[in-house]
Design a protein that fits this description.
11 strands, 6-stranded mixed beta sheet, mainly beta, elongated, Immunoglobulin-like
Length: 140
């Protein structure tokens, strides 16, 4: 008797599952914003690859993330291959946002990298975690 009820419940569950329409696939990541001849990268561009022409400016604008008792702040973004992407400026604001500009100086490939870490509010402690952000830039 129990097995008959189990089989009936299982069959009903399978029938219900067959009528569920899968959700639409997530939208593909669009090319980063291009503003007046510059490619602008943000927090959302982590782990992506972008292709830029030689001579173009690549700007990185990373926003700090505020938690309940902490702020996740950035360090200044850096290029793994400076002859390909030459940094022309780089700053970290008191609130933890980071901005940097790079000139696509030569054909090749370079990673842009920055790290986010926790800055606790007074009287609180943060986890000892560092979150990497990396974008691969191909200069053509």
């Amino acid at each position: 008797m129990k097995s008959a009820r189990f089989l009936a419940a299982a069959a009903a569950g399978l029938a219900l599952a067959a009528t569920v329409v899968p959700s639409a696939p997530a939208a593909a990541h669009a090319r980063p914003a291009v503003v007046a001849g510059a490619t602008v990268l943000s927090n959302d561009d982590n782990a992506h690859t972008v292709i830029v022409p030689s001579g173009e400016v690549v700007q990185v604008r990373l926003k700090a993330v505020r938690g309940e008792h902490e702020t996740w702040v950035w360090d200044v973004p850096a290029a793994s291959t400076p002859p390909v992407l030459t940094r022309t400026s780089g700053t970290v604001a008191p609130g933890g946002d980071a901005d940097a500009s790079f000139r696509a100086a030569a054909r090749g490939r370079s990673a842009l990298a920055a790290h986010r870490h926790c800055r606790p509010d007074r009287g609180y402690v943060c986890p000892q975690v560092v979150i990497p952000w990396t974008v691969t830039v191909i200069v053509r």
